[in-house]
Fold FAD-binding PCMH-type domain-containing protein.
Amino acid sequence: MSQINEFFTGNLCRCTGYRPILDGYRSFTNDQTCGKRNCCRLKKADSDTEIMANGCIDTASSNGATENRSSEEFLIDQDLYNINHFSPYDPSQDVIFPPELKVLHHELHTQSLEYKGPRVTYYRPTSLSHLLNLKSLYPDAKLVVGNTELGVEVKFKNQLYPVLISPTHIKELTSVVVSQSGIVVGSSVTLSTLEEKLRDLIESQPEYKTRIFSAIVEMLRWFAGKQIRNVGAIGGNIMTGSPISDLNPLLMAAGAKLSLCSQERGYREVEMDEHFFTGYRKNIVLADEILVSVHIPYTREDEYFLGFKQARRRDDDIAIVNAGMKVSFRSNDAVVNSLRMAFGGMAPTTVMATKTMRELAGKHWNSSLLETGTSLLLQDLPLSPSAPGGMIEYRRALTVSFFFKFYLSVREQHSVKFPELIAPLSAEEQGVVQIYHHPPPKSCQLFQKISSSQDPIDPIGRPMCHSSALKQATGEALYVDDMPHFSKELYAGLVLSTRAHARIISIDESEALRLEGVERFFCSKDLPGSRNETGAIVHDEEVFASKIVTCVGQLIGLIVAKDQSIAQRAAKLVRIKYEDIQPLVITIQEAIVEKAYLNQWTIKKGETESAFKAADHVLEGDMHMGGQEHFYLETNAHLAVPKGEDGEMEIFSSCQNPTETQKLVAKALGVPENRVVCHVKRMGGGFGGKETRTSSISIPLCVAASALNRPVRIMLDRDEDMVMTGTRHPFYARWKVGFSSKGLLSAIEMDLYANSGCSLDLSAAVIQRAMFSMDNAYKCDNTRVTGYACKTNLASNTAFRGFGGPQGMLFAEDVMTRIAAFLKIDPNMVREKNLYASGDKTHYNQLLERCTIRRCWDEVLQQADYDTRKGTVEKFNREHKYRKRGLSVIPVKFGISFTAHFLNQAGALVLVYTDGSVLLSHGGTEMGQGLHTKMIQVAARTLKISADQIHISETATDKVPNTSPTAASASSDLNGMAVLNACEKILRRLKPYISKDPDGSWENWVKAAYFDRVSLSATGFYRTPGISDFDFGRNEGTPFNYFSYGAAVTEVEIDCLTGDHSVLRSDIMMDVGESLNPAIDIGQIEGAFMQGLGLFTLEELRYSPTGVLLTRGPGAYKIPGFQDIPSEFNVSLLRGAPNPRAVFSSKAVGEPPLFLAASVFFGIRQAVEAARASYALNPCFRFDSPATAERIRMSCQDFITAKIEPAELGDQKPWSVTV
């Protein structure tokens, strides 16, 4: 399983939460158990005991009840799938390397190759002499092995390298030789091969000789993913000279020797020291020289070596700061003979702390050396307050933290050798030197068993496989860009604004149009008047910016060409002149100063002023919560196909809102909506990001297709998608709360400011949802909340899973946490005292019925063994100074419905064919969440047929018109009821034939009806009853149909010296009513939790002061990976809690669980609070989201942070700003 974990590092998946993927692949390993120490698979089972999908034996216990029923009535199940149903292993079906290529293997690998293109020539020499000759002829040629760096430069930095040389088939550059003094590694040796060779030496040589090798192998664990290490080479890492290279600090600290060679001068040897790098990505290697090999030395008994790295995400991430450190002692004592320390991330190059190295030589390895070294390091490694990468104080603190860890680690090892000279580490110091190892994941998923009396073909409540799962797993599932190309099809390239607020002076497309293969350039001149106006709710945007741009990434023009590469290349040739406009508003704080508000709203209940006066205590505080990039796996993809007559247009789109796409395309084309059909087969993720912002790409695409009368396709690159389409709204809150000495709420006032970006989009509804959610699960009779939509010069922010709810709820939990810190009591006591109950009214006066929040709370505490573990965490924190743990419990209450009343409707179309097969269409779109699967289940139960007889092909506006977006977690509720309605119509028509032939088959009844000329198609419709628009002025209305509830307990551990954190365990209890499909619902819960974990801990959007998104693409923007899932991850569905207000008593599940990941955030906050307590610091402190490593470390103030001078900007501009 450890190999599976390693291979998946570097693979990103937004949807599943990773655990199901690992569980699926566990069946290929030789340790297929649930991972728990007392796993029942390890016990002897009876022969008739069924082994469950996660490796456990079904024990059929129970976990709770409704308010008036016994928990024993509801048995649990954990069989999400049955491994006994898998196909047996057949080795003949293994994927093999094509034999015909093996036959040619030797011949191909001994040939020199040369490829000539119109702009680039590629050489693959097979001898060193040939390589040197090529480098002599083309001194500026780039040597490329894995293309892991060069590809980025060509793609994102617009670099063109006319000559590329691949040195992968040259013996001298691919060999590994072990010598008396160390190991000589060819510069083209891949990192995976290097790791393998070093591991062999570590196993065969004495420990003291391989300390450098061990440090390199340890660093390679965190160096990119396995796939990158398989192709990236050690020479490329050195020669590209990245200032945050993971290997260069180690090689410099080790004193590695480089063998260089040129055709004219032959060989020379240089040392990697402080003189090797001469500037940003520059070194002393001459233009006609090549790096042949690297000599990495052994260590001696009196030498110690370690590497360090801190990144935003532990696995597969570039470093914030990294280091290599080596110390040599004089024989038989603890006096430093020499010290080498190299750091990355502290300058434009990897640098050595030369002054510190000199001054510490000759000193004893004791606390005095540590103190002196700390001060010297800070002098050696200054950072400008405006340095690229930002995080100035944090990066400086990391250098000292690494040195402190090195000091303790060496002291620990050297004290074994010289116990009389060096004191051993204390218990709390030993925690500092521990090397992190990700434990094998373990998990459990529990849900309610279906009744034994349920019809075997009735799929409701069963963990039925996702209808597209097999196609997606094999790559057969088709997405927009997989569609076959049409005849005469063209490709579009985007011309985007590079300024955040400017007047367009001129646009010159002439150079782009001269490029062969370019068909035409489109801009605002091609879309006159109101046809160029667009927008989600109000038309406050332009399809093409005409006179003024209001954000970086705004569409100015569209190049249409014969293929993608030409279109994108031509788009970069369009020249635009700007004139900047003031004010430039980027951040919420700037918007507040400028009073730049699109709108504002207030909800008020009770009398807050009098309640504050009567309160025992009043606290005030504020908090900022960052935005979040959707990072769906499939970027925006669209294909516009003109029909050639009557202005008809078909658009195949990856969007959540086909009806809105239809409307806006029709408006831009100047045709009625009935001339435009939008098709959505499936999406590779959406999360709200494809609800409205897709139209900014699909509309101009259709304009071009219509004008040229040719199909036009586009699929955005990741950086284009990120810069154009907006994010989750960043929020800032100011609050004031009154409460009793026991922690009971009496009054709260809160002002919410959302960074809406440059247009309204869905910001009004997002902010209103945040206002509705600012109570989370807590009752307060006196509340006033005001929300402001701040207009800024950023891409318009938009819908994202939770839709403002997570922001409002996070601020509520911040209030509860600070109350507890002020009163010096357990935060759980404050939360428990204020939980809602059935019969309570919210601050917007909606009555809570069938409120299960207390059940979820109590049962997750029991499931997580909270009381016992709380004591264990407290004991751990007493015993550890530099590592702390936190254990947090967070509830969630989430209202289900569109708050825009008119959207709470849905339609469906059921077509029954004479062979009995059923084609089902409904208004919802499939984005991986399993909506189509659930709709098939609803239809199968209603029609009383097998789910295998029902098929959903796509969502299309010519099948079901006027659809609502697939959003707000309401799609199963709305479309499920519409499907139910349509199927019931069919069933009523078949009733006479069923009565006439009760023992007949479905197929017989259908044929009988057909021959009797009975319609076998039906439309269904549903509108949610009992809800109404909310009146903010009167504080009345019923915005939600019902509420979903849940609770989570999470335990985390932080490294107080680096800010690193680990999620040790998460337990979730979620009320999903009577689950339509437990497998899909649990997958949704886990996926939402992991997306929330990213929101609250890892994912940080960074913008320049001029509004440029700095975190574009996976290299700079980090979502959680496989190694970020909780080490133990247990999910239970609340049993015995039917919901009468949705289809078959189910509940929505898409958005509510996301906020449960706030238990990770507040667990981290508790751990930070424990660290601060060690230094008697104020437990009431501001702790913004996300809880990045930087924020964690700098909140754990200590003797190191006290030495860091604040980064005063003066007249300089910061690298990034908090928006």
